[in-house]
Design goal:
275 residues; alpha/beta; six-stranded antiparallel sheet; five-stranded parallel sheet; 11 strands; binds adenosine-2'-5'-diphosphate
């Protein structure tokens, strides 16, 4: 247990339930609500906590003897002093029905080990890296587009984000604008970071599911590139189970092979977790 964190919290208040062993107890620094379905929050970061950009951790609340934990991709880069997360709100979700009510100063629990497949180490270097996301699936890419290693490994980084409506794209719009202005990373992104958004339910300048945009070539036309090729392109995919399955089928059809930490290759997939 992180005794420093626990000490800090015990000094401040009495908790209803003890903090389970092997869990960090961190303070909420800020919360931002985007829509009635989406919000982001930032937590203090335990000094001992290390992770690779793109990984996820288990998050819970100190509201039960045995708290419910859910996997959350870390949206902040590895160099950030705080930890950022982007979450869905599920009305009767065992965790998110409560998590959506957190306020600055509240305590959020976090298991100590991060893990995940959407990491630079699982891909071999190439000209382009496509990060394909829907909904909260943008979270691991929010971390990766702010990591200098991503720019060491790939010449061009293309982040696609598809949501039901325009308001759901706001987190990604703000993220990319802030990344371009960032004193550490901004310069690296110049002419190299591309952000392509589309909506599927509300009219907007770019519409369509990412699967349709890949299949009919619209994505590549917008970018002025050729369709996916194992020689030049690497792909990371994060979204719902159905989206993962369909996008994976398309990249496999293009001849890309799935990579892992043990055997880096051309693409990796990870579910955007809900609950
Ligand atoms: P759609 O509006 O046509 O369902 P959600 O918020 O439900 O997770 O959806 C996020 C985005 O992912 C929506 O734009 C949704 O489109 C899209 N989507 C859902 N299923 C798939 C799929 N199998 N392949 C590609 N995109 C999908």
């Amino acid at each position: 247990m992180n005794s420093a964190a626990v000490g800090k919290i015990e000094a401040a208040e009495k908790l209803e339930f003890p903090i389970p062993a092997g869990v960090h107890a961190e303070r909420v620094v800020s919360v931002k609500h985007y829509t009635d379905r989406l919000f982001s929050f930032r937590l203090t970061r335990p000094q001992t906590f290390r992770f690779r950009s793109g990984e996820f951790v288990m998050i819970g609340l100190p509201n039960a003897e045995k708290p419910v934990f859910r996997a959350y991709s870390i949206a902040s880069p590895a160099w950030d002093e705080e930890l950022e997360f982007f979450s869905i709100k599920v009305p009767d979700g065992p965790l998110t029905q409560h998590l959506q009510k957190i306020k600055p100063g509240d305590i959020v629990l976090m298991r100590q080990k991060s893990t995940g497949t959407l990491v630079n180490d699982a891909l071999t270097p190439a000209k382009r890296l496509y990060m394909i996301s829907t909904g909260t699936g943008i979270a691991p890419f929010a971390s990766l587009i702010r990591d200098p290693e991503t720019y060491d490994k790939f010449e061009q980084i293309i982040l696609t984000h598809t949501c039901r409506d325009v308001a759901e794209l706001a987190y990604g719009e703000e993220l990319v604008a802030a990344t371009r202005e960032d004193p550490l990373i901004g310069e690296l992104t110049e002419g190299r970071l591309f952000h392509l958004t589309s909506t599927t339910r509300e009219p907007s300048p770019r519409m369509g599911r990412i699967t349709a945009l890949i299949e009919n070539g619209t994505l590549f036309k917008w970018l002025g590139t050729e369709p996916f090729s194992p020689a030049e392109d690497r792909v990371m995919i994060c979204g719902s189970m159905a989206m993962l399955k369909d996008v994976k089928a398309l990249v496999e059809k293009a001849g890309l092979r799935e990579g892992s930490n043990a055997e880096p290759a051309d693409f990796v997939v990870e579910r955007a977790f809900v609950g």
